[in-house]
Every structure is written in C-alpha cells, then in structure tokens.
Amino acid sequence: MTERDAWSEQLRRGGLELAILLTLAPGRRYGLEIIRHLEAFTDLIVTEGTVYPILSRLTRDGLLAAEWVAGEGPHPRKYYRLTAAGRTRLAEMTDHWNTFTAKIARLIRAAEPRP
Amino acid sequence: MTERDAWSEQLRRGGLELAILLTLAPGRRYGLEIIRHLEAFTDLIVTEGTVYPILSRLTRDGLLAAEWVAGEGPHPRKYYRLTAAGRTRLAEMTDHWNTFTAKIARLIRAAEPRP
DNA sequence: GCCTCATACTTGGTGTCACGATGTATAAGA
DNA sequence: TCTTATACATCGTGACACCAAGTATGAGGC
Question: For chain A, what is the domain count?
C-alpha cells in the first residue's frame, strides 16, 4: 500500500535517526517530548512506534544513555541523553549528511534546464 | 554486519532513487553509464545489483521507459529515459527533498553550541 | 578457431528497518 | 469509580538496497 509516498518513507529512514540525535544535542529529553519537538520544530510527524525502537537501538549501541525519572509528570519518564560516543557519532553523521546532500544538490543543479 | 556504516547505507536508500532520476533528467542513459556517471560526478559508489532493480521498479511504475539499442558498443544496451510521469514525479521528489533537508538543516543549526 | 577479457544486464537470497496497531501502566479529574 | 491523558513497549509486516552469482555478447591475441 501507500504506493505514492513510499519514497518519502524511504527518505525519512536515513534522516530520522539523525534528527533524533540532533534533538537530543541541546540536552536530555524523553520519548514523547522528542516526538512533539520534531513536530513543532520541523513539521516532521513521527509516531511512538517509530521513535521508541530507534531510541532503543541507539541506547543499545551506546550512543544514548537512558534514565528513568519519576515525579515530574503524571507518569514516570525515560529521559535520553547523548553519551560521549553519541556526540562523536552525531558529528560524523552530520558531516556525512552534509556531504551527501551536497552531492544530491549537485545532481539537482545539473538536472535543471540550462539557464 | 557493517555496524559502522549501516547508517550511511540507510541514508543512501532515500537518495539513490532520486539520484538516478536526476541522472536521467538531461537525457537517456543506460545502466552502467548511470553507475559511472554517479561515481564520476558525485563519488557515489553504487553497484549493478543496486541500480538495476531500481531501474526495473521505476520502469514498472511508469516513471522510466526502456529501449534496447544494439550496435553502439560491444554489447546491446538498455537505454532508460524519463517519461512524462517520471518528470512530474521527479519534480515532486526534488521538492520533497528540498523541504526535508531544510528541516534537518534547521535541526543542525539548533543543535550547534550557541555562537 | 579458441580463449581470455571487458562490457552489460539479470536474478535470488538476506538482513534491516520504519510504521501501524495494540497493549500496559499511572495518576489526575469528574 | 470511570474516563481521559500521559508515557513507554512490542509484534507483525512489507519494502528495499545490497551481495553474489549467473547469462550473454563481441573484441583481440595467438
């Protein structure tokens, strides 16, 4: 299904992981907070079923550290923050992102009708 | 395996289809030619096993048209060109790409240490 | 005429991953 | 007590790039 926007889903696949790490760069945040921030700040709609698996994977890989905090809200929250490894990795990924988008941008310019 | 660069592969997934369509925007090209052009023009390394399935899918979806041409090289070549639908779709995708990268760029700026 | 070698396209199997749906738990408010 | 909002977790699914191996064609050497 969803033949139309199958591609945009593909596109997100690469970007979402980076987007989540970037969201955590300024400081710790919990799951739903990340979702709301992404939507408010970039119009990127992501659901829980998408974000939680990514957060789990990033934590398992040592890029994030998780910490339960109770008493702040109606429900205990699991806060995530970047580890040192996560920060290093984020820098690498940002770098990679920039060079990759530059390549695509170059193709886009080459594809435009001659000016 | 390849835990390290698993992400960069993910990133390519979204961009490759766009990159291939962009490569075909100026005119028709055949499979290996697309691979060589991407490598020469953008340093993007893609193998046959990656490109041909994408070309098949895009053709099946009506975005590309294929045509066998013999006598040009040592082997008959299958040339691909954008259809009208493909051109429309390419414009949509380019648009989508631009807005998406703008969102990530915004996150990157927000993640930088305050200047 | 045979044998490499480069060209060119094809295909099957594999692993990864976002996404939707569903479920569980907690506590405030009516 | 019953609803509602918050918050996190997970299973199943389908899509898809990638690797590897395979097929076909003709040119050049000897």
Answer: 1
Nearest of B24, B4, B18, B8 to residue B81 by alpha carbon: B24
Domain extent at residue A57: 6-111
CB atoms within 10 A of CB A20: 26
Q: What are B13-40's pLDDT values in tens digits?
A: 888 999 999 999 999 999 999 999 999 9
| Residue in this structure with the two tokens 């990924």, named with its chain if needed | A93
Residues of chain A in Cβ contact (below 8 Å) with chain B: 3, 7-8, 10-15, 17-19, 22-23, 25-26, 41-44, 61, 90, 93-94, 96-97, 100-101, 103-104, 106-108, 110-111
Q: Cβ of residue A77 near strand D, that is under 7 Å?
A: yes
Return the CATH number at B46: 1.10.10.10
